[in-house]
Amino acid sequence: MDSTLIMQQFTLIFLAALVLTTGMKLWLGQRHIRYILAHRDAVPAVFAAEVNLHDHRKAADYSTANTRLGFVNVLLDAAVLLAFTLGGGLQLLDGFWSGFFPSEITRGMALIFSAVVLAGITEMPLNYYHTFVIEQRFGFNKMTFGMFITDSLKQFFLAALLGLPLLFAVLWLMQKMGGNWWLYVWLTWMGFNLLVLAIYPTFIAPLFNKFAPLEEGDLKTRIEALLGKCGFRARGLFVMDGSRRSSHGNAYFTGFGAAKRIVFFDTLLKALNPAEIEAVLAHELGHFKRHHIYKRLAWMFGASLVFLWVLGWLMNNAWFYAGLGVTRQSIGMALILFFWVAPVFTFVLHPLTSLYSRKHEFEADQYAAQHTNGKELVRALVKLYKDNATTLTPDPLHSAFYDSHPPAGVRIARLQKMVHNT
Predict the structure, then answer these.
(1) Cα–Cα distances in Å, from 137 out to 62, 194, 339?
(2) Which partner from 88, 126, 216, 334 sits 20 to 30 angstroms from 54, CA to CA?
(3) Catalytic residue at 215?
(4) Which of 41, 92, 40, 88 is nearest to 63 (CA)?
(5) Catalytic residue (choose from 94, 276, 284, 361)
(6) Whole-model pTM?
(7) 365 in active site
């Protein structure tokens, strides 16, 4: 088949996929808003005793506001992608850097870094609006403008510090390792992710938050007893000053091996009593005991291997570049084109990843119900739904695409069934 015809067909396929994906996202958002508003004036029966109508409406309005902002984000993402591809943005940047960097590797690094920075700048107004308009309006934001700028700069320099060496290694391997470069890049990518996971607790997280040891008392005693019962060894129990930025609450554990840490947001400790906190932690421990972290890593690494293999095939075809508005074939251009365009074609797979994640959440809930009082976990979750203004009535289809956790009503009903059967 004529190469020009293949290029034109690929352009049409890309545009069709972009229109379909963008349209699906907007349609799902509209469904979500309609569903929430249709149930705004009645608290679901399973929550009627704990959540009043005012809080239910607040959650509905908060979710609606975030979804409407999401419409702008979806359209902006599509516009930016078109501007950089068929609009000639990447081609322009590549030509600009050619006058400074004759080396294919350094030119590719400059191209990718500048394109990512420019795309990130376009998102900053939306991040600002979300933080200082939506979060502020609903009483969640604790961040100052200075903190917002400082966090953004820290994230930028941290991404550069970690990302640029990785990018150099990837481009070097793509250039030097022949036809099987994608396998070497995959191994490097796995090592990089494991390294970040290892250093995150002690080197990265403290750049943004302060961590203090959990104080002695009833809560610490309960938690240590739970850890002993579950056979979980942690390097420390810490409280994070999440209230400096937001009133949302959470708990998590991080790290591998002897470096595992358990972290509580200070907002969580204020919102829940010791028994409820113990139940929430048991859920997090359930993820560890059921090997969910390793399963998700294996899934991520497996998917990345497939993606890199596909990239290895695509980058040798001129129609891949030309069909996306680029005339010069290069390793840097192939890399950024692929990872910017691939999500357009894979959005329809989101329900599968969400389903897999929800399965893990149900398993962690079951573990928590077996090792603590399941009723306490129910009470804790209801409080967190209320305090975080989580909608209790999401659109089922929207939730299937976007939510890594089960809908509130489904999750609580299942937990109550577990409690009843024990």
Answers:
(1) 9, 39, 35
(2) 126
(3) no
(4) 40
(5) 284
(6) 0.92
(7) yes
